[in-house]
Design brief:
341 residues, alpha/beta, 2 domains, 5-stranded mixed sheet, 43% helix
Length: 341
């Protein structure tokens, strides 16, 4: 049994897993950042510090287990906001010292890569290796060829803005609140995606890289020219739908093309933007045309969460438990007993 901690940005999350089954997965989102129009790192760190202990207690209660039943602790160590990561890592170190537990460091992106496997509690299809995984969020947009839990490589990467960042920045240009991605998605569902023709950057570049900064610039100039006095309410949904279509077109085309080139029969979309309804529908329909299965995590696993961190931490620990038994802290009697078994 393993306890996992995620605190890389503005979600504090604690999860308990047992043999890859999620027993609890608590996520506390810092909504107060909305009034600042983006995540404020120092405030994010303070919020993590304020809530992480109580969330851990609640996660154990929800899972109906105690810390003495844990075999290891998994924690996000990179990438992310440095202060936020320090809060999670130091809290994990404290627990590891107190209970004599091995500590398993996990890369946040690695958690997203394998989040599509966290579907054992549903009727959804489980991915089969090899897999093409699109990790798409506010900070990352990348395509991975995943051979197994230990072997994967980047085959496509954004050259500038991430897709989620483009959604949020364009939403701000439209006068929408932060985070703007979900708002654009909601507006797009009632809009005409063909009304405005925004650029699909690098759509035909011949590789699997992305670029979304040009789209953001194009929308800014479009708004300045067409709506200098503000965007009328009756066209806002059409702009949202057109922007979403421009982003989704590129994400889907490149991801499916990668799956075809590498002969892969399973695509996973992960990260915060994988919750976008337009992306989920388009990726599923386009994949099906070529006999490729598309797996998208349930909504709770799209956002930053500790369950995905715990899932891959458990794999790492089970594969090589001894390499995590040499964490640099003063050895307690409990830890010494565990190390000498």
């Amino acid at each position: 049994m393993l306890l996992a901690i995620e605190s890389s940005c503005d979600e504090t999350s604690i999860a308990i897993l047992n043999n890859s089954v999620v027993l609890s997965n608590i996520i506390s989102t810092q909504y107060f950042h909305r009034k600042y129009g983006g995540v404020v790192p120092e405030l994010a760190s303070r919020a993590h510090l304020q809530h992480i202990s109580e969330l851990t207690k609640q996660s154990l209660v929800d899972a109906k287990v105690g810390m003495e039943e844990m075999e290891a602790i998994g924690v996000t160590t990179e990438p992310g906001l440095i202060g936020a990561l320090i809060v999670g890592s130091n809290f994990a170190k404290g627990l590891a010292l107190r209970y004599g537990l091995p500590l398993v460091p996990v890369n946040h992106i690695e958690g997203h890569i394998f989040s599509g496997f966290l579907m054992q509690d549903s009727a959804a299809k489980i991915p089969e290796f090899p897999v093409i995984t699109l990790v798409v969020s506010g900070g990352h947009t990348a395509i991975f060829l995943v051979e197994n839990f230990n072997t994967y490589k980047i085959i496509g990467l954004t050259k500038d803005d991430a897709a989620g960042e483009a959604f949020d920045k364009i939403a701000k240009l439209c006068g929408l609140e932060y985070p703007g991605g979900p708002i654009i998605d909601k507006l797009a569902q009632s809009g005409d995606s063909k009304r405005y023709d925004f650029p699909r950057s690098m759509l035909h570049s011949g590789d699997y890289d992305f670029s979304f900064s040009g789209l953001k610039t194009s929308v800014r100039y479009f708004i300045q020219k067409e709506f200098p006095n503000g965007i009328p309410t009756d066209v806002l949904s059409d702009i949202a739908a057109s922007v979403q279509s421009a982003i989704v077109d590129v994400l889907v085309a490149k991801t499916v093309a990668a799956a075809k080139e590498y002969g892969v029969k399973h695509i996973v979309i992960a990260g915060g933007v994988s919750a976008n309804s337009g992306l989920r529908k388009r990726m599923a329909s386009e994949s099906a045309r070529y006999g490729i299965a598309c797996i998208a995590p349930s909504m709770g696993y799209c956002m930053d969460n500790a369950a995905m961190i715990g899932y891959i931490a458990e794999k790492k620990f089970n594969d090589s438990p001894n390499i995590f038994n040499h964490f640099d802290y003063t050895v307690s009697a409990n830890a010494l007993r565990r190390r000498t078994k």
